[in-house]
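Reminder to self: tokens first, then the designed residues, so the page reads top to bottom the way the pipeline ran.
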């Protein structure tokens, strides 16, 4: 099961002069593979790095470089070429091009198309780290943010010039993800959503702990999908090695008790609470202040006490937000999940087999609500997360 949110989407891809221009060819290939309708406009400088013929072959359409091109019927290329487009994406966007945009300059086809546009504009900046960090560039970035221009990247890493740092163009696959996010329906605009994700760690001593196997990937996908759907998202996260999804505000916690405190602060004023975290059911009653020593062949006992059930607490608030629970079961999936939904008193529960989702990129989910079962099937976690949020939006409306 793979959905293609870019199928048929009308995108104008602008390419400006920088070594990353060669990656625009790959971007066009990926966009075409997703079924997008891509029209390419290049600056003169971009054509020094990659030829219009390459882009024409990949996009399967004429490539535009000249403000005075007579191919547009009424000679209004600077307006016509963007009018049927849903977004202009400039990748790579050079420092010089961003400076022009920030000041409303329009001295070539692409800058004129941007100035005359009616659709949103997204930039994937690409430049040397010093150019990116230069206060002049940062002033321009701030001005463009103010003007509601969207950004994909830049990324950090090795640069073509031999230096290292922020300024690399985002990988084409990541830019594709940003576009997919842009095209998601904003069904949850104006809603505040709190998501918990990842495991919790319960200390035994300063270097040992009890924890659950959880990569946090499902919870992070849910946070990302909620943000894509237009919600204001707070992600309360246990210790995981994942980047924060764009536009999401993240609160890092370690123990279940810390997660509970963070949730108490944010969940009372939210519209939806989605509990994806694999919270440890128990914590060590008296964790040792010093590293425990081996007891020469004798058994070691740890006394455990129960952690609070965060989801059940939120669901029982007098003005509880709409609560969604996750149940990872190792057997009798539906039976256990149904019992859990009733016990925790949540309107919606997402059930999956632990062995299906653990650590990987894919999962298989069945939703349970008052109407019964809804099988979301198997697929990438982000696609399941989008379906889950769509279901939530439908229930909120109902
Ligand atoms: O009871 P169980 O851990 O299987 O329930 C899973 C659901 O309850 C998940 O949504 C999980 O995030 C939540 N939970 C919680 N606090 C706990 C234990 C589980 O919020 N202490």
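Designed residues (398 positions):
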């Amino acid at each position: 099961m793979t959905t293609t949110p870019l199928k048929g989407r009308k995108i104008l891809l602008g390419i400006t002069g920088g070594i990353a221009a060669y990656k625009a060819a790959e971007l066009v290939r990926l966009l075409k593979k997703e079924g997008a309708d891509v029209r390419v406009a290049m600056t003169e400088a971009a054509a020094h790095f990659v030829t219009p013929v390459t882009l024409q072959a990949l996009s399967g359409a004429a490539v535009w470089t000249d403000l005075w091109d007579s191919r547009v019927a009424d000679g209004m290329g600077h307006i016509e070429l963007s009018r049927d487009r849903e977004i202009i994406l400039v990748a790579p966007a050079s420092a010089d091009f961003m400076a022009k945009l920030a000041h409303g300059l329009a001295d070539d086809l692409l800058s004129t198309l941007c100035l005359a546009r009616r659709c949103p504009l997204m930039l994937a900046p690409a430049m040397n780290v010093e150019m990116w960090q230069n206060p002049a560039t940062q002033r321009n970035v701030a001005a463009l943010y103010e003007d509601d221009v969207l950004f994909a990247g830049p990324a950090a890493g090795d640069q073509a010039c031999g230096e290292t740092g922020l300024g690399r163009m985002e990988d084409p696959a990541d830019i594709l993800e940003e576009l997919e996010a842009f095209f998601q329906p904003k069904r949850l605009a104006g809603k505040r959503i709190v998501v918990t994700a990842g495991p919790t760690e319960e200390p035994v001593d300063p270097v040992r702990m009890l924890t659950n196997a959880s990569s946090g990937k499902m919870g992070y996908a849910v946070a990302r999908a909620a943000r894509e759907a237009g919600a204001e998202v707070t992600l309360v996260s246990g210790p995981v090695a994942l980047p924060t999804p764009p536009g999401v505000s993240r609160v890092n916690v370690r123990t279940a008790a810390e997660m509970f405190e963070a949730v108490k602060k944010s969940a009372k004023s939210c519209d939806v609470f989605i509990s994806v975290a694999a919270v440890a059911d128990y914590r060590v009653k008296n964790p040792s202040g010093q590293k425990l020593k081996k007891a020469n062949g004798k058994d070691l006992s740890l006394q455990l006490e129960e952690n609070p059930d965060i989801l059940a607490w939120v669901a029982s608030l007098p003005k509880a937000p709409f609560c969604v629970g996750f149940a990872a079961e190792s057997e009798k999936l539906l039976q256990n999940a149904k019992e859990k939904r009733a016990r925790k008193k949540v309107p919606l529960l997402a059930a999956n087999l632990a062995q299906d989702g653990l650590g990987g990129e894919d999962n298989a989910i069945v939703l349970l609500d008052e109407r019964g079962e809804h099988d979301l099937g198997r697929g990438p976690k982000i696609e399941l997360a989008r379906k889950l949020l769509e279901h939530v939006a439908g229930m909120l409306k109902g």
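The chain has a mean pLDDT of 93.
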